[in-house]
Sequence to fold (421 residues):
Amino acid sequence: MPGLAPTREVLANGVTVIAKKTSTTPAVTLLANLRAGTVHDTTEHEGLAHFVSRTIDRGTERHSADELAEQLDSRGGTLTTSVTRHTLSLACTCLVEDLDEVLRLVGEIVMQPAFPAVEVNRGPGEIITLIRQDEDNPGAVAVEALMSTLYGRAHPYGRRLRGTVERVERIDRPVLQRFHAERGVPEGLSLAVVGDIEPARAIDAARSVFGEWRGGTAPEVTQAPRLPTKGRQCHVVPMMNKSQTDVAYGFVTIARQDASYHVYSLMNNILGQYSLGGRLGDSIREQQGMAYYVFSSLEANLMPGPLVIRAGVSPANVARAVASIDTELRKLGDSGPTEQELVESKQYLIGSMPRTLETNMGIATYLQTAEFFGLGLDYDVRMPDLLRAVTSEQVHEAARHAINPDNATVVVAGPFEGTLS
Fold:
């Protein structure tokens, strides 16, 4: 099966452009990623990158927020912004004939955000509302407490993505401008252009918008001290006004660039994703009927990321659910996967790749991921063989090494007052 075979070019100023022609619709998707994620927050201004993501498109040096929205809307486009641990993203889809003008507007937002005082002053109230909603959500509380316990608040992965009320209230316009001046630089921008346009034409359009942009370097955070492993840790966060209890159970595992990534990916799929939720879903939800939901996720990143198991259960079933998670992890560590699990998980992961590439946005997201982690332009072609090469013994060894319940961190949030061991 032929691969995507995108075209990649690094402009003279360091901006990376990745272009892929598709012909399913007469439209083009733009996905601009700045290396300006929450890992670059400071202790004093926790939540800064998230604040920037919510205000970067609220006006530029030339246009107000309303003017930007009106110009995009008149061309059928809507700009969305988001932030992760490492990147701040702006995404927009438009018709091919509107590409030049829409790209110019996106470039203006990326390079020249004004952070108008009226918008900045409105920002804390909106963000604090979101923080309060998180603090009232047992699932969000459990995950935040898990990450803080696994990594420590001094580590970028251990901090809240949105920050805290106290820290957000300290963020003002000069702080936002300084953050953008430091992180909003050509070297830190990658732009994916996917749609019914020739790659050379897309790259030329990007060069015309970003080619004269100047700025410094954008070093990435790839190392940070984290808390040493302390054996099993269990924490309960009582939220007695809730009806459901959420469990977040996890371990620090590997970085995305680790040679064993595909081994861990298969292990995670077998554990908590394959079929109706892997072994966890089959045991805890289907056979025992204890969980409203249960799944696992591998969040490998530039630094070693967590494998997290999530479950929503009745307060009466918390201890049994945690014990059942322990049991399934011990089984996988003791005996490894079955041949059927390994074969079908490989088929599932290999088969899911084409589904993720069915839309322009899916392709753009994939291309940005491959670019960010340095996977190569042909990763979509190589990935099936990388998965097929994984052996049962490798998955077994990963399970023994990485998901021993004796080293788990377990957080329970909700109307539960018992103890865990």
Observations:
- The longest strand covers residues 27-34.
